[in-house]
């Protein structure tokens, strides 16, 4: 009888079998193809009184992790967010983001 009671307890202690994704970004287990779009977000932050990632995230209404992913090229922001980033720094959109020419 004690064994029957122990089995459900062990099942309750197991981890869930699914991974939850962070809000706005894929889970760590997912393979994300790096984007070809390059950006100057990090450089612009330092040119503007060394703005922190947290400060930029607050301006944009996103998490600091999202800003990190954008800077590292692991996440391409939406068109609206791209315009917001350019507006924060007071520069045209093409001063922040660039798409390389095809090398054919």
Automatic annotation (TrEMBL):
The keyword DNA-binding applies. GO terms for molecular function: DNA binding. Keywords: DNA-binding. InterPro entries: Cro/C1-type_HTH (IPR001387), Lambda_DNA-bd_dom_sf (IPR010982). Residues 41-96 form the HTH cro/C1-type domain. The keyword DNA-binding applies. PROSITE patterns: HTH_CROC1 (PS50943). This is Transcriptional regulator. It comes from Labedella phragmitis. The lineage of its organism: Bacteria, Bacillati, Actinomycetota, Actinomycetes, Micrococcales.
């Amino acid at each position: 009888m004690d064994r029957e009671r122990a089995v459900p307890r062990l099942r309750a202690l197991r981890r869930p079998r699914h991974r939850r994704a962070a809000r706005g970004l894929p889970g760590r287990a997912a393979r994300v193809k790096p984007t070809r779009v390059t950006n100057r977000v990090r450089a612009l932050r330092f040119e503007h009184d060394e703005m922190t990632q947290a400060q930029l995230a607050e301006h944009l209404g996103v998490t600091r992790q999202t800003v990190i992913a954008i800077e590292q090229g692991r996440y391409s922001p939406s068109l609206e967010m791209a315009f917001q980033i350019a507006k924060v720094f007071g520069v045209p959109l093409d001063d922040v983001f660039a798409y390389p020419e095809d090398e054919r």
